[in-house]
Queue: 2 jobs
Job 1
Amino acid sequence: MRKLFFANWKTYLSDTEAETLARSYAERAAAVSADLAIAPGFTALEGVARALEGSSVALGAQDAFWNDEGAHTGEVTPKQLAAIGARFVIVGHSERRALGETDELIARKAAAVAADGMTPVLCVGETAEERDASSQERVVQAQLEAVLGSWTDAPFVVAYEPRWAIGTGRPCEPKDVEAMHAFIRSKLEERNLTARVLYGGSVDPSNLMTYLAVPNVDGVLIGGASTKPAEVLAMLDLLAS
Ligand code: PGA
């Protein structure tokens, strides 16, 4: 299976910057031997969708509400995202868990995203304290179970992102990534589920190929480096060679 390079642009770019950068992904996509996806901020979705038209780069969103029906001021529904052309939606990113999102809410979001025909990208990962206490597997297992406990056959992606490695420039040791990805894979297999499992957290041009070579790593979820034009070009060049 081709690796997935998933760019999470968070709140880093203006809409104009997002459209310009999306065009450079689109121009290079054909030369890259990986699947590319971009999740811009909500306000940039339409412009980025236009910039990606005709290319193989998939559009994603960074979050979604858990219900398509009714009146929910300030929310963006999966139905609205599907209509704009999104194919992936991140659920349970640690920056949202930090704002109080629970496993139960994340499970509802994942189900709602899948019900509208999109692929949820479920983020899981432990805090620094949890790793220091060697409880990372217990934490990740609980996060997986909450969402996949009653999952049937809709496609989904898992992103393992140790919370202490996100946006910190302090990447996870490849041997620790390997151990956790093997653990996640075994949990999926127990449930007869197949999914791509991505690694995320301070991935950049200097470590991209190292992570992609780790067993059971099916791609990467990249924040900061995926928004910096020079680093993007460097990473796409590496994927082209
Ligand atoms: P980072 O973010 O690459 O800036 O660490 C990863 C993420 O999107 O969670």
Job 2
Amino acid sequence: MDKHSKIYVAGHRGLVGSAIVRHLQTKRYNNIVCKTSEELDLRNQIQVNQFFENEKPEYVFLAAAKVGGILANATYPAQFLYDNLMIQSNVIEAARQNDVKKLLFLGSTCIYPKMAPQPLKEEFLLTGELEPTNEPYALAKIAGIKLCNAYNKQYGTRFISVMPTNLYGPNDNFDLETSHVLPALMRKIHEAKINREDAVTVWGSGKPLREFLHVNDMADASVYLMENCIPEQIGDFVNIGTGQELTIHQLAETLCEVIGFKGEIIFDSSKPDGTPRKLTNVTKLHQLGWQYHIELKEGVQDTYNWYLDNVVINE
Ligand code: GFB
């Protein structure tokens, strides 16, 4: 990619897409194309083909998706499967038809079997049953990986797939029903502090282990891989993570410390735990020349500052 290359970021208003746009701008890429979902419905093949024919982007970051936490996945399984299949299939096919030089497809580490050995190596894909709470999303993302690989093989495209661990950071979704765990707990703990409550409720047992990568690191990794790596080096896909995990309980304690809430943490066992662990093996990622930079506590502080400046004042 050179600084004038036309780069399309699909999903530019989301957590990852907005971070990728910020990072590209920081690196002085000056020909970035974005469309809101009102301007371009990526589930509509005709609109997507028309957009690609008009714009002829050279590089595509496919960060648009229907995403959400454990409850959202359980509540909207049809949309998680249909929307994601349509979005990725339309963009990948239009990219091929319009000779896009390189496309980066974003998935998630929920693609792995629920009880896969840990840490998760890329070769563990499809070696066991998926985690039921996010099976629709996982199936869609697995299909996206397979589609990119099939296009590379049959058409000679250069479409690379990256599977990030749980992401967090500025521009995240803080809705308590549909969000991921970190932003949900940040909001709950902040509100418990402001409202001088005695306790904050955490879903599940607090025992599951999770790994968290700041979205600015994710954007840096995505641009790095797009700039420096080709499918032959990456293989079917590559994990993007820190290789470090903590329990949901420890996460809640970290958030309480950063936010300054000294009340009790109580657990709502009526809510699901989801998969017990999903720690990424980051050996391949490190061999490709990238590793994370933002430690969790620093990233949580950065995200809380953003939350206070951008979410709380608008309420
Ligand atoms: O981020 P999350 O919702 O989804 O995390 P996954 C769920 C874990 O956090 C479960 C606990 O163990 C929940 O019981 N948890 C505790 C909470 N309190 C809360 C809360 O207030 N809100 C939420 N959401 N969780 C996601 C997939 O799995 O991982 C997505 O569903 C995506 O599709 C994402 O793949 C990366 O980490 O379980």
